[in-house]
Amino acid sequence: MEPILQVENLTKQYPDFTLDHISFSVPRGTIVGLIGENGAGKSTTLKGILDLIRKDDGTVRLFGEELTEDRKDMKEDIGVVFDGIHFHESLTPAKIEKISAAAYKKWNTQTYHDYLKQFALPADKEIKTFSKGMKMKLSIAAALSHDPKLLILDEATSGLDPVMRDDILDVFLDFVQDENHSILMSSHITTDLEKVADYIAFLHNGKIIFDKEKDELIYRYGIIRCSSSQFEKLDKEDILACRKKDYQWDILVADREKAARRYKDFVIDNATIDDILLLYVKGDVLS
Ligand SMILES: Nc1ncnc2c1ncn2[C@@H]1O[C@H](COP(=O)(O)OP(=O)(O)OP(=O)(O)O)[C@@H](O)[C@H]1O
Predict the structure, then answer these.
(1) Which range (8-17, 45-54, 68-77, 268-277) has the least confidence?
(2) Which domains, and CATH codes, for the chain?
(3) Ligand 1 geometric centre to CA of 238 (Å)
(4) Nearest CA to ligand 1 atom 1
(5) What is the pTM of this model?
(6) What beta strand segments (E) does the chain contain?
């Protein structure tokens, strides 16, 4: 079965930045987390997918069909939440409903009201009185209420407190229970992705460094902590990335159990997504 979203060679050139032939896919019924440092190209990737910027190269396929300028109808199947609200501040959730019901063929009033209730959002208050978290919740409620198949979220959980983030993550997990639904979400809150993502695509300097199953990263990758003399004994083929901090080396390896068998007296920790990102961004990448 083809993935819900397939991105091939997506390229965008700005004067000081190039999003460089990005390819990855979002399989059905999954959540893909897009990670990377500030300026890595995450928003540019999401905008390129949504045709909000002119691509210099590449194709984007939704359910196998190319998403082109003349297929704007396909965008109905995509729910979008970007950091920062795009509704006018004088609108209320009730007015947004009227506008959205006219704009989307599959708008579902009941779903929208259920989310307003679940997120404790007043229907008749102007958005300008809302906190950042309330605005984010409203964007999510609206995005989920026109029956999208794919949700594209750019930092959608930033600005929400941990309790509300947890609730929203449950909503996302619920959404992908339907195998014809998927989510592509960028986030700096990697612990959120550790909770919900099935795959992690890592962007660095406009290039995809890896696109892997989250469980492989969490359960197989490891970090060897060792001294300079121990470092010299390591087979460099085993090292993905490494970084020296004062007198200690942190070394990322793809298989911590294999490393533990090979390097018996070494300390080897589990790697978090943050650890992996830091080593790739701030360390030396060997393979
Ligand atoms: N309209 C534009 N014109 C010129 N350069 C741009 C434009 N939009 C983005 N860029 C550049 O593209 C690069 C990637 O930006 P992008 O917003 O995609 O990064 P990001 O990974 O989403 O970062 P952050 O985590 O800070 O949101 C940055 O160097 C940015 O300055």
Answers:
(1) 68-77
(2) 5-217 (3.40.50.300), 220-285 (no CATH)
(3) 33
(4) 14
(5) 0.93
(6) 5-14, 17-26, 31-35, 57-62, 65-66, 78-81, 150-154, 182-186, 199-204, 207-213, 222-226, 241-245, 248-253, 267-270, 284-285
Interface confidence (ipTM) of the complex:
0.98
pLDDT tens profile 160-176:
889 889 989 999 999 99
How far apart are the CA of 186 and the centre of ligand 1, in A?
Answer: 13
Structural contact between residues 200 and 273, judged by C-beta atoms closer than 8 angstroms: yes
17 C-alpha vs ligand 1 centroid, how far in Å?
8
List pLDDT tens digits, range 122-162: 999 999 999 888 898 999 999 999 999 999 999 988 878 89
Give residue 124 CA to ligand 1 midpoint distance, Å: 36
Contact residues of ligand 1, CB 6 A cut-off: 14, 17, 36, 38-44
Going by alpha carbons, the residue nearest to atom 30 of ligand 1 is: 39
